[in-house]
Design brief:
Distance between the termini of chain B: 18 Å
Largest interface: A-B, 44 and 34 residues
Number of strands of chain A: 9
Distance between the termini of chain A: 84 Å
Radius of gyration of chain B: 11 Å
Strand content of chain B: 35-45%
Number of strands of chain B: 5
CATH topology of one domain in chain A: Rossmann fold
Structural class of chain A: mainly alpha
Order of helices and strands of chain B: EHEEEHE
Shape of chain A: elongated
CATH architecture of one domain in chain A: 3-Layer(aba) Sandwich
CATH architecture of chain B: Roll
CATH class of one domain in chain A: Alpha Beta
Largest sheet of chain A: 6 strands, mixed
Largest sheet of chain B: 5 strands, antiparallel
Number of helices of chain B: 2
Radius of gyration of chain A: 30 Å
Structural class of chain B: alpha+beta
Oligomer: heterodimer
CATH class of chain B: Mainly Beta
Helix content of chain B: 10-25%
Strand order of the largest sheet of chain B: 4-3-2-1-5
Chain lengths: 675, 76
Amino acid sequence: MKINFALIGNPNSGLTTVFNQMTGGTQNQGFFSNSSMKTKEGPVRRHKGVNVIELPGTYSLSSYSADDISTRNILINGKPDVIINVVDATSLQRGLYLTLQLMELEIPIVLALNMMDEVVSNGASIDLIKLSEELTIPVVPISASKNDGIHDLIDCGIKTVLENKKPQKIDFCSGYVHTALHSISHLIEDDAKRENLPLRFCSSKIVEGDEPISKALSIMDPELKIIDEIVKDMENHLGTDREAAMADMRYSYIDNLYKKIVTTTGESKEHLRSIKMDLILTHKYFAIPIFLGIMFLVFWLTFGVIGAFFSDIFSIGINAFTNTVSDLLLSLNVSPALHSLIIDGVFAGVGSVISFLPIIAVLFFFLSILEDSGYMPRVAFVMDKLLRKLGLSGKSIVPMLIGFGCSVPAIMATRSLPSERDRRMTTMLIPFMSCSAKLPIYAIFTTAFFTEYRAVIMMCIYLTGIIVAIIIARILNFTVFNGNPVPFVMVLPSYRLPAAKSVWLRMWENVKGFIKKAFTVIFIATIVIWLLRSFDFGLNMVTSSEDSMLASLGRAAAPIFSPLGFGDWRAATALITGLSAKEAVVSTLAVLIGASDQASLSTLLTSIFTPLSAYAFLVFCLLYMPCVATLATVKREMGGWKNAILVVFAQTTIAWIVAFLIYKIGSFIISLNLF
Amino acid sequence: MTLDKLKAGQKAIIKSVGGEGALRRSLLDMGLTPNTKIMVRKIAPLGDPMELFLRGYELTIRLIDAKAIEVEEVIN
């Protein structure tokens, strides 16, 4: 028989840890895959036929956020056999607030009380038997990070399904709210039955004034009027509005229950430790330097030390393997075209995918630690005021900064952002943060044209990217994202030592996801570029790259760049190859210009660029469409080619306009002969 | 007075939660309901948002949103 667990709870309650302990980290596509939400599904280990889905962490089942509505729909329409509600025992009240709403769904439910080890070590106690009796649902104490109680939880989940034990108690109040709920549930009983919706849940939501539920029930006009009367009556008696009345009712019940079941001996050690750590980490003057220091360290280790070390090892390995295969092919006397396809096409393609892996792995190792330790919400707290000017919230700062390293992991990191709006907007801004692959281009050009002012020019380029991002953010705020931003109401959880297993799994998940989704795109792109570079339009293999299809395309595209000051076909061709990877701009220019080494490239560049057109070229490189790896990631995270193609056009247009302005204004200033 | 007027370390009891829509609902959902005791833990380095302590945990909200919350200061 098949059993489906739905795992749900507050953010930071340990949902992912429970999921990982149950499944061992295995995920697969499953019965909820039609939803666009970031859910995870996997088979429960050692229990054949038992599946678990992890829903995104939430505090409530309101109808205000798209994620919450999807969660509701999954629970109501997807009909999991049992809800496993994970509650952080160290912030019991907030967790139970969601529990009370889940209990109304008429689905069997098990309460998994997580972090019980902390409760016990602090000398506090929770009367689990009483809690279970009061709520009429099974309660299982667990410590997910230590894998304590997970087996009991799975067994209890299965048992609850087999007994089909739904919560008996769904009434948490007396007085006016109770009266209103009761009257309304009589009124809508038939509607709920007809639409196959849980009655008590519907009544609560209608008292709250929940539009989607009202619509789903298609209540008739006379009933609607009566409902309005009932609610108004309740509001008048309580002196408060419907939403506050319901929240207050739930929290009052929880406060009473809490007093009955919890005995504490003061503040917990973990909480006190957290407060002490925050004295430094969110300190008035130290907080921002510490954050920048941490980011610098992560960057330096990722792109400079560890990531670079693995990248080097990988490239040595790939080169050795490529050479072996190349020799083998030569000894077999295969045709030059086939040899080129395998070596310059296939191997180069695989190589470029693999070159990303160490960076993604190392970066996500550090990000997981920052996320799991509880530091990320502090970053949002500290940086919020700055990011708010862009219409974003503090959390977006981390993906944006990663963008200076590489857009691919940066866009993947937007997954931790709280709302779809923030995710999309951050994703669109990240490519303007100049990534490290563009550095070789800047390096060559600044050496050739701006020897004395290299550092200044470099800084100008980075700043141009940031300024353009700010302008774009402003425009996006007025157009695409002109709706209300998601409210910034955020919990600062206690600092915790990240579990090695979850750090490892998250790292692995990202690497695997990247290989799976980006591989084909990057691979095909490399092959296409190879094809264009190696053949002419008659599909004859070319001896000189000047005769290739790519060069012809470059010649065709060159006039587009004339107004920007670099109408030479070699510049255009280099920009086209830059789509496979930005470093390719430099190598293509070198080949087409006939430069044998870096020094001669610098000299030869002066023959097709002036300092001004060189600067316009650099700005164009900074801003124009991102590489295919980034596009593949945009497509994956924003769900579809439409957005990726939009990014291509938007960025290339922006790049053209900015470079055009720089070249024209620059030319004008030079023509004034002020210097 | 309103919540945004409180300084770090000051305690208060919530009287009413104003505002509307998603923001108000999330404030209520997070347990900022009438008669709840709260304390301002600190103000962020750039002067906004603020960190509150309530129901045994820390919550941050922006000053502009705190303006909608009516409180009564508690002096020990």
